[in-house]
Amino acid sequence: MSSSPLACASCPVRDRAACAALDEGEREELARLGRHRVLAPGETLFAAGEPNDRCATLVRGALKIATTDVEGDERILSLVHPAGFVGELFAPLARFDVVALTASEVCLFTRAEYEAAVERYPELARALLRRSSEDLFGARSLMAMVGRHSARERVAAFLLAMADAASDSPCHPAARFDLPLSRAEMAGLLGLTIETVSRQVSALERSGAIRRHGLRGIELVDAAQLGRAALP
Q: Do 172 and 224 contact (CB within 8 A), yes or no?
């Protein structure tokens, strides 16, 4: 773990994160409150049950929000992609684990100072509310997909979502990207077995929708075909 002052001018998500709602002076003031932190794969940013005294914006990489059931099994609740916000404002204790899936970088703030900034800047509050609504919609969509869709549809929809998350464009998915999850993590998230996930990925590759590169690399060969495979 390492940390350093924030450098907003070179931030790759400066136009997409919640702070994009602020003007330059306001953003500089917010930046003085935070620190840039680097996370190794598997490193925990926030742990369930610990004092909820920090929050963060993801700059690079990918995070998972997870919980552990009574039998000790992890359940991934959602994924966080660059420009995503993590941290439960106005809650005394963290309710979920937030863990780096890949080498990641965040802008880290104390909760008290960020809450004060939200009170001070209504535009920041509205941006966070909009992002929270989008995250809630995504979580509900995932629950609906796992509950009703076939294995092929779940895997195809997941790959499309990862392509969208990896893209710098709001209009087009990334043509090539690395999956942030292992096969086991994908299986847990989608409510499938590891073997089923592997079979469905192989089937999508045989159909010409995707091409695999190494263990986690995915190339979208035919995004339209993958989209059709994701439909119920």
A: no
